[in-house]
Amino acid sequence: MNVVELRRTLKETSSFGAWVSAVSQFFESYKLFYGHGTDNAQDEAYWLIKSLNGWESDGFSLPKLDKVIDIAEKRANIRKPLAYLLNEAWFAGLPFYVDERVLIPRSPLAELIESQFSPWTSLDEKNRVLEIGTGSACIAVAIAHHCPGVLIDATDISVEALKVAEVNTRGWEEQITLIQSDLFSAVEGTYKIIISNPPYVPHDSLENLPPEYKYEPSLGFDGGNDGLNIINRLLQSAAKYLTPDGLLFLEVGESQPFFDLSHNSLPVTWLSFERGGDGVAVLTRDDLTGYLED
After folding, report:
1. Which end of the chain is least crowded, N or C, by CB within 10 Å?
2. Contact between residue 47 and residue 75 where contact means Cβ atoms under 8 Å apart
């Protein structure tokens, strides 16, 4: 289906389901990559139409037809992820503002946060959590939402990313503090949880990613030769910032095989998720104490 056929089809009906079906067929004609909030054309089309309708009733006002066409055509022709075209992403059931200064949220850590970190630990009011590499602040906000009263320090090395995080943390200032920091460089004290989804894509793999990824900041992807540059630094320093009963939750994604080879002496527990996803490790302070220190 081309854009002329899409416009004609949408003009012929006011049915929400028919609009979703038509936009889905249009997307499928272009062999797009999905993975920035959805994993198929049908869900992507649903997201586009519901978002432009304000996530309200299934009715859709026809005057917005031109907007649907415009965004669908951009999605197909320039391969920009829909989240950036809408400036909207969802994580742990919550909406977030996103643009090309931050990665689009898509981590299995959402499921862990929704469970309030059960069965691994429990958080009480005023317990401290540190997020390393907050980006859009989706993880920090999700923790604040699902774990009331918990205090979160959310760090990022990127000033531009923190500007986006500031948008998303409005209303959460009592629980979330944003900090510009290169990992632990501007952090003080200890935390019951340290959580991070750091850059973990091996450098040579970056050029093989689908076109959609070129719109995301490479700073959020590039993990060096084996994907472990930032991860190794985290492992080296995390213990001193954890409480005695503290835990590190670390997403290493596709670098898990390299991680296992490089860190085979670490007693890592790999998490499993009901909704899919892997490459998330949990480690205690005792596991990490003295590890990789000179």
Report:
1. C
2. no
Q: Answer with the residue of higher pLDDT: 66 or 194.
A: 194
Domain range spanning residue 214?
101-288
Q: Which of 49, 89, 43, 47 is nearest to 68 (CA)?
A: 49
Whether residue 294 is contained in a domain is answered as no
* Domain-located, residue 57: yes
CA dihedral 25→26→29→30, nearest 10 degrees, is -140
Distance, CA of 59 to CA of 76 (rounded, Å):
25
pLDDT in tens, 196-255: 999 888 888 888 899 999 999 988 888 887 888 999 999 999 999 999 999 999 999 888
pLDDT at res. 108: 93
Helix or strand holding residue 74 (H, E): helix 65-77
Instruction: Write the DSSP symbol of residue 40.
Output: S
Distance CA 45, CA 51 (A): 10
Taking the CA atoms of the chain, what radius of gyration do you get in angstroms? 21
**Is 79 a member of any domain?**
yes
